[in-house]
Amino acid sequence: MLEPGSIRRFSGFGRNAVSDGFEVCISSGDEVAEVYDLARAESRQIVVRGAGRSYGDAATLREGIVLDTEGLENILGFEDGVIHVEAGVTLARIWRYALELGYWLPVVSGTTFVSFGGAVGMNIHGKNAFHAGTIGEHVEELTVAFPSGTRTLRPGDAEFAEVIGSAGQLGVVVSGRLKMKKVVSGNVLVTARSCRNWEEQFEALNEGEADYRVSWVDLFSDGRGLVHTAVHDPSPGSLRVSDQELPSKIAGLIPKEHAWRIFRLFNTRPGMRLVNAIKHLIAAKFESGKTYTQTLAAFNFLLDYVPEWERSYLPEGLAQIQIFVPEDGALSVFREVTLTQQRARRESFLGVLKKHRKDRLPFMFSHAVDGYSLAMDFKVSADLPSLFEQIAEVTLSNGGRFYLAKDSLLRPEHVRRYLGSDLDRFIEAKQRLDPEHLLSSDLMKRVGL
Amino acid sequence: MSYQRAIVVGASSGIGAELVRQLAQSGCQVVAVARRGERLLDLATQFPGLVFTLEHDVCRTSDIPNAFQEACGQLGGLDLFIYAAGVMPTVGPDEYDFAKDNAMLQTNLVGAVAWLNQAAIRFGNVGGGTIVGIGSVAGDRGRKGQPVYNASKAGLATYMEAIRNRLSSKGVTVATIKPGPVQTDMLGGKAVAGAMPVEQAARLILKQSSRSGEHYLKLTHRVIFAMIRLVPGWLFRRIGPA
């Protein structure tokens, strides 16, 4: 039987649902086979969990075995700009290791605390998604423990693209090699432009040459906000990790470990309407049109400025969703989604607009489109599913897609519509690689897979 | 108090069966555990998809960890655990029958500890949940008529107090309920004055389950038994009831 004392309560990063499971920690890839055997003996399923940074229920499994890969923590090597890491190594450790050697991550999420295995499993993207694609395109090799045995995969292998993005449903990523990006400085040159509406957002987001493009959107308005474009600083500059540390105080006053408590005071509809309005006014008056230097960490890891910021949404929790819409329909869909929230008086407290391109390899459950994405942070409420239903409908009607790392609301019919024939591909791959269905998650059960 | 997933041990009759019924009526999924599995079938038939049955003898303590995990697996989690199993055979005034005594200790105390330990481990680790132990006012004093029944219920109450002290800081509610006489088979068909209908007892137990501590079902019981606990031993020997 499973060790009774190994039961733990897990949730996604958004803390909007909890799920109890039996935690099994491993410190070597060889141990995954034993975990598969344990699951067979106990007639239980396994969910693979890295750093637990997926917002919803991708890394939880009710009464299942929660395979914690954080103990796979070794950086195995670095050669010719390619880093070889075990699955539990976080992106933070990777860039801290590589920066002083003149390398940065090719793709980063908004937080640096994602594990390599999680990044590959969810096939994360960053603010450079419009030219760099998803992280899977920069992976050169993966070692994956399948229920039938461990294999090392390269981009030419069919299973390589199947495993990347599969949310840990086909095998357990044990380690991999990631091609890093050469940099001469740890800084980026950032240009800010304030926008009054959605039209200006799309115009500003596409302006000039840039390595990164991202925009903050006030969803209490008609898409006003602040676009940031950035290029890597071409002048040789500091590559010291110590220069990348985020400030210890917010606005020079509030110790960042307590900042979420201040955020919580404003975590209401009127409060966040006010915060968004003030931010817009400050951005329009003091930031717009300026170009300034920022460290790579400060520019990329906005979510890490305020530790545990997600706690400001408690007790209800945070449901983050991100919709991806092809270029032609994006503006009208995002405007419609904005109006839908406003009509329901359930506006997202934060909106983030990014530009994307399609994946160049057929990654599983791909969210990528030649178009744009809008990420939204909702405080959980009883009427959120019905609001989401309307958002899903307008997204799906316009050929849109979703991102499993940021989801708590998709239902089987949504997944069927957005994946289309890719769903059959997943079912075939599942049958071939995990025929006993040893791998699962609360998310997979929710969407009927 | 609204529960979604519960285990009730000792669910084939009396208070346990009624607790299962009321929990299921509120929409809670329940694993009903009892030695006499056939007696659970009515409940399962009455509440399809809500009541699941598990035939198990609490004296088989080595089976309990597995049974507990299976029950939690079936429910997809656990919010509430109730130990309601108990036996009280008739004991003569001069009877010292170890077989009877041992049966009472095994069911009322040893089996309880074995099941409740599992619930305590789980709820302590996940940081939440409710544990209810059905004790008895009979555990408050040692009476002439039922030395071992009294001892078993006193032991259960003390054990419950100890795990309450262990788990309260972890967000776990631990309630010991001390019903007085309730109209169940345990009374052996005897008419006992003031015996509470089982439906009322179960309703009050579920109501009181949300608060950690020792609870009597009636205010009058709380007052009377507080006074009984204060009666000096020499006087209790003379006037104490059977």
Major beta sheet of chain B, specifics? 7 strands, parallel
Q: Biggest interface between protein chains, with counts per chain?
A: A-B, 13 and 16 residues
Helix content of chain A: 25-40%
Strand order of the largest sheet of chain A: 17-12-14-13-19-20-18-21
CA gyration radius of chain A, whole angstroms:
21 Å
Oligomer category? heterodimer
Structural class of chain A: alpha+beta
Termini separation of chain A comes to 26 Å
What Rg of chain B do the Cα atoms give?
17 Å
Identify low-pLDDT runs of chain A: none
Mean pLDDT of chain A: 96
Beta-strand fraction estimate of chain B: 15-25%
Shape of chain A: globular
> Judging from the principal axes of the Cα atoms, what is the shape of chain B?
globular
Percent of residues in helices of chain B comes to 40-55%
Question: What's the order of the H and E elements of chain B?
Answer: EHEHEHEHEHEHEHH
Strand element count of chain A: 21
**Given the structure, what is the number of helices of chain A?**
14
Description:
The complex is a heterodimer of chains A (449) and B (242). Chain A is built from 14 helices and 21 strands. In chain A, a hairpin with a 6-residue loop joins β1 (7-11) and β2 (18-25). Chain A has helices at residues 31-42, 91-98, 116-122, 129-132, 158-163, 198-205, 259-265, 269-287, 296-300, 327-344, 384-397, 412-419, 421-433, 442-446, and strands spanning 7-11, 18-25, 46-49, 65-68, 75-79, 82-86, 103-104, 139-146, 149-153, 172-179, 181-182, 187-195, 212-217, 225-232, 249-250, 254-255, 291-295, 318-326, 351-356, 371-379, 401-402. In chain A, α10 runs antiparallel to α11. By secondary structure, chain A is α+β, with helices and mostly antiparallel strands. Chain A has an eight-stranded antiparallel β-sheet. Chain B contains eight helices and seven strands. In chain B, α4 (98-126) links the parallel β4 and β5. Chain B starts with a strand and ends with a helix. In chain B, α1 packs across α6 (198-208) and α4 packs parallel to α5 (147-167). Chain B is of the alpha/beta class and 242 residues long. The model of chain B has no long low-confidence stretch (mean pLDDT 94). Chain B has helices at 14-25, 41-46, 64-75, 98-126, 147-167, 198-208, 219-230, 233-239; strands at 5-9, 29-34, 51-55, 80-83, 129-134, 172-178, 213-216. Chain B is globular. Chain B has a seven-stranded parallel β-sheet with strand order 3-2-1-4-5-6-7, with helices on both faces. Chain A binds chain B through residues 1-2, 4-9, 19-20, 44, 62-63, and chain B through 65-66, 68-69, 72-73, 76-78, 118, 121-122, 125-128.
